[in-house]
Amino acid sequence: MYSVFSHLFLLAASVTPALAFCGAHTHLDRRAEGEAVEISSFGYTGTNGPLLWTQLNVAENGLCSTGTYQSPINMAEGQFQLISASDVELTIPDVPEGAPFENLGTNVEVVMKDVGGQFVLEGKTYTLEQFHFHHPSEHIDNNVSLPMEMHMVFGTEAEEIAVIGVYVDLVDTASVLELHILPRATPSTLLETIFSSVGEIATPGSSTTTKPLVMSELVDLLKAGSFQRYTGSLTTPPCSENVEWSVATEKLLLSTATFQAARNVIGFNSRYPQNELGEQNLLAMAIMAAQAETPAETPAEVPANTTITAPVRRRRRVQKKQGTSLE
What we know:
Strand content: 15-25%
Helix content: 10-25%
Distance between the termini: 57 Å
Structural class: alpha+beta
Radius of gyration: 28 Å
Number of strands: 12
């Protein structure tokens, strides 16, 4: 088995890293208005899952098995820089007419490229293209996995990419009486609105339009916390690196019932956590481990002066005790 992986690894290592927008369909491709929703060619299980993404297109997906700054990662101390979200310029207008909501086969995505959302990072302005959801969360919150994660994908004309990751946790819907007695956390109106239409796109390749989206709720939530910043990669093929990640410390909440409806359409779509930033790719490490030869064990030598083994001596003692001689 390892020879197959070795062959793929050698091919992947020899190719030029692909740009994020080229090649097979990804979350970042731009389609002409009215063009059909293209179903993704990669997946998350079996032979088109993350372990074999390079095999799907060796010329473009090489970094999936060789890259050393891959995402997602465990967001533990030392892996990111913490910055206050209030110091970051993030603007996303409300969408009173709703936005296109599509099923790509591996994900559900809200298209936002014409809304005008902007994210300014280190003096560079990125424009909001879309946001989509992963179940369960792809990033690990200091060794803890969350039910879902939303990825807000921003880009520049030079095809540079910045992504805001937002964890999604669950909350039970409180009754009106309970809310009056004791203040409780409530589900995100934005998420509840989006996923109220998820049943309309249950079939891969289908699309609909969401109800009006109040994006100010999301912006206010994010700016109340901090961002965990690091430079990683796309979490889907071609796994291109130099992606600027900002994982929010504030979490969105979703009711259990709505989560179940969304989960039934999205399914499982999370890439496994990658190695620490700058360390060898886990797939490359696995290949090297498989190729390593296991040294054969050398049989222990029997001392030259050994005439009777321990079991025989024990047998003699037992038999002599019983009055029986071996001679």
